[in-house]
Design goal:
This protein is an alpha/beta fold. It contains ten helices and twelve strands.
């Protein structure tokens, strides 16, 4: 097993935003790192994470970012080492690549579940087809993020997994400011006024309210509401968000749904 010491180097646009222009890439890095710090301040959770990644340069960048965010990280580059580590060491979660020497990430996860280990596992991999994601989640994975990715989204997913692990009871309703969502009756009200929502609009609003005060990326909405990765030029999220805002915000004095430039959306009351 290889222990990677913290290496504090800036995350570069080439690594995290490989398909963006340089200027746009650096803007996103600044935004992502600012959001990353704010998110960890709110989460107040320090995790011990196993990172199983055979690309050593990628592993260094990930380790650097996670350590800077307050987490402790151990790194291995071989699937067999990942399995051994998880079986005989204490950690809060594992981030697994699918394609590794020795044993692939999916086999590592299946072996862990067969051994009765309920360790939270997030796949971070280039294998991004629908069948790949379904296979990883069906095998017992807690989340699945496809490369390339925004670092802020990785962090948000880590926090979400942690929150789910610490929740002792499933909420039956959500409240943000004067907005109320009944998860059992599937109804939304604001200031006591019923808001008629279609299924997709309700799903989007639920995600925004569960992550109140945090950024929900466009990619997260595509994956969780539509259960599919649409091609990047689709406007389905923007179209449905416009309709949702017309119902949730327009009839009222205070807007709750806010656009976060180049990233996604955030739902919160007045600040």
């Amino acid at each position: 097993m290889l222990r990677v010491e913290p290496i504090f180097m800036p995350l570069t646009a080439h690594m995290i935003f490989p398909n963006l222009t340089s200027a746009q890439g650096w803007w996103n890095i600044w935004l992502s790192m600012s959001y990353l710090r704010n998110l960890l301040e709110k989460a107040e959770i320090e995790m011990k994470i196993l990172l199983a990644e055979d690309d050593l340069k990628m592993a260094e960048y990930l380790t650097s970012g996670l350590v800077e965010s307050g987490h402790s990280v151990d790194h291995v580059s071989d699937g067999r080492d990942a399995l051994s580590y998880c079986l005989y060491n204490d950690c809060d979660m594992a981030i697994l690549d699918r394609m590794m020497p020795g044993m692939d990430g999916l086999s590592v996860l299946k072996a862990l579940r067969a051994a009765g280990k309920d360790l939270p596992v997030l796949f971070l991999t280039a294998l991004g087809q629908v069948d790949d994601r379904v296979e990883g989640l069906s095998a017992g994975g807690d989340d699945y993020l496809v490369k390339p990715f925004h670092f802020s989204e990785l962090l948000a997913r880590i926090v979400a997994i942690t929150r789910r692990q610490h929740d002792t009871a499933e909420a039956t309703s959500l409240d943000v400011d004067d907005l109320h969502l009944d998860l059992l009756a599937r109804t939304a009200t604001r200031q006591g006024t019923l808001i008629e929502l279609h299924a997709k609009e309700f799903a989007m609003l639920e995600i925004l309210m569960r992550n109140a005060g945090r950024v929900v990326t466009r990619t997260m909405l595509l994956e969780r509401v539509w259960n599919f990765n649409f091609e990047p030029n689709t406007t389905v999220v923007e179209t449905h968000m416009s309709r949702l805002r017309a119902k949730v915000d327009k009839p009222f004095d205070v807007a709750l749904i806010h656009t976060i430039r180049n990233t996604g959306y955030s739902l919160h009351g007045p600040r």
